[in-house]
Each structure stands twice: as structure tokens, then as C-alpha cells.
Amino acid sequence: MSYTNVDALGNTNLMLDLISQRQRALGSNIANMDTPGYVRRDIDFSSYLGTMNSPLETKLSQKLGPSGVIEDREKQEIDIAEELAEMQKNSLMYTVATRRMSNIITQMKTVINVGK
Known about the structure:
With about 120 residues, this protein is mainly alpha-helical.
């Protein structure tokens, strides 16, 4: 087993944590859409993903922007359709991350079994 697999496992775990945090933020936005003074929140993956050594994460990092937790103070109303669309995107990211985690674990098992 190389350190690359261990690093990839840790990076994928971080990605799953961020996806979970984003789902909570989006859910909170929907739950508080009628709360006066509530500020919309979101998670920006780029501040975290930019530290990973993969072309995919680097592309995502460049596309999504500079900070981790974003508060959108300019937008006064929360659009339920937009929040649900973002939840769907987040769900797709979750699917990709869990498949990646499964592939890494399968590779690690293969290395262990070949070494026997």
C-alpha cells in the first residue's frame, strides 16, 4: 500500500465531510427561508479542495471560488427551487465521492491480498 492511497482516502473523507456540511447548510437555508434577517449560507469546496493533488479537485477549486463558508448577504430572499437544485448537485457529488471511496478501499484490499 502506498502513501498515495492513504492520502486519497483522507482526501475523499474530507470531501464527504464537506458534502455533509453543505447539505446541512442548504437544509438550513430552506428551513429558515421565512425567518427575518436570516442570511443564506453555503460551503465553498475550493478552499479545501485546492490543497488536494488531483486535476479534478484543482478544476473544482478554480471554478467554485476562494472561501470555505459563504454567507450571501446580498441576496435577501431564498429561492426554494435554487436551493433544491443545489441539493441535487450536492447529492451527485456525494455519489461520486462514495464511489471514489469504494474504489480506494477495493484497491487497498487488492494490495493486501496480493501481499499474502
